[in-house]
């Protein structure tokens, strides 16, 4: 109740104050020509709107010209959307996040159009020394990323079920028989030893391991 009376008192005081100021001449209107003033105000508003919109459009054009999207093609835009879609599936629906998030990120990075100019060299290409993508690509050509993947997967592996039930180890051992069967089958079909080993590792049903070993052992003759 006390707060209500306080609010009512403040409102009444402000009303009385505004009435007193109005009667004392603070709100007297200065004579003016309404049509002339309205015309001037309208012209000023239109000029301000035009100037603001023009400056905004100039800023957008300058941003596009100084960015790589000036050189963007339809393929770049489509693949960037595909990468964003993969990341969306991984985050929203938890669908293979360990695969889709890196794949989507790689698709986006690989399809961002670079700024190209004869006068300016921003050193952002894959083959330009000192660029970020050059260091990232170094991990690809030197095979650094597969061991990092193994390290991360190993750190996430839960062995509690195996420790509680050691008989499950037999299932893991039986699964590796596919490696030797595939290896012997590749030798029988005429592949040399490194190529047969690269094919045989597929029997382990482990993608990163197959990629790493294949990149180390094969000489490319399989696809020739």
Beta-strand portion reads under 5%
Largest sheet properties: none
Average pLDDT works out at 74
Distance between the termini: 91 Å
Q: Which blocks of ≥5 consecutive residues have pLDDT under 50?
A: 25-34
- Care to count the β-strands? 0
Tell the overall outline. flat
Put simply, the count of helices is 11
Question: Topology as H/E string?
Answer: HHHHHHHHHHH
Helical content (DSSP H or I, runs of 4+): 55-70%
Structural class of the secondary structure composition?
A: mainly alpha
What oligomeric state do the depicted chains represent? single chain
Radius of gyration using CA atoms only: 35 Å
Question: In terms of topology, how is this protein built?
Answer:
Elements: H1 2-23, H2 34-65, H3 74-92, H4 97-111, H5 132-141, H6 145-156, H7 160-164, H8 168-175, H9 177-188, H10 193-200, H11 207-217
Helix pairs in contact: 3-4, 6-11, 9-10, 10-11
In short, what is this structure?
With 224 residues, this protein is mostly helical. Residues 25-34 have low confidence and may be disordered. The protein contains eleven helices and no strands.
Please describe what this structure looks like.
- It is a single chain.
- Helix 6 packs antiparallel against helix 11 and helix 9 runs antiparallel to helix 10.
- It contains 11 helices and no strands.
- 69% of the residues lie in helices and 0% in strands.
- The protein has a domain of 66 residues.
- With 224 residues, the protein is mainly alpha-helical.
- About 4% of the residues have low confidence.
- The termini are far apart.
């Amino acid at each position: 109740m006390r707060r209500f009376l306080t609010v009512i008192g403040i409102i009444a005081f402000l009303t009385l104050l505004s009435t007193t100021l109005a009667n004392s001449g603070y709100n007297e209107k200065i004579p003016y020509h309404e049509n002339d003033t309205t015309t001037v105000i309208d012209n000023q508003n239109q000029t301000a709107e035009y100037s603001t919109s023009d400056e905004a459009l100039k800023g957008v054009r300058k941003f596009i010209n100084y960015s790589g999207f000036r050189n963007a093609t339809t393929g770049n835009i489509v693949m960037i959307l595909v990468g964003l879609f993969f990341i969306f599936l991984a985050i929203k629906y938890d669908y293979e996040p360990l695969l889709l998030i890196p794949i989507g990120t790689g698709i986006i990075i690989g399809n961002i159009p670079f700024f190209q100019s004869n006068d300016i060299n921003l050193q952002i290409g894959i083959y330009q020394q000192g660029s970020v993508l050059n260091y990232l690509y170094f991990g690809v050509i030197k095979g650094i990323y597969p061991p990092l993947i193994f390290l991360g997967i190993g750190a996430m592996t839960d062995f509690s079920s195996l420790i509680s039930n050691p008989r499950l180890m037999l299932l893991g051992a039986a699964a590796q028989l596919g490696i030797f069967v595939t290896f012997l089958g590749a030798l029988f079909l005429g592949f040399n030893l490194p190529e047969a080993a690269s094919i045989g590792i597929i029997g382990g049903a482990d993608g990163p391991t197959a990629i790493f070993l294949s990149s180390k052992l094969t000489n490319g003759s399989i696809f020739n």
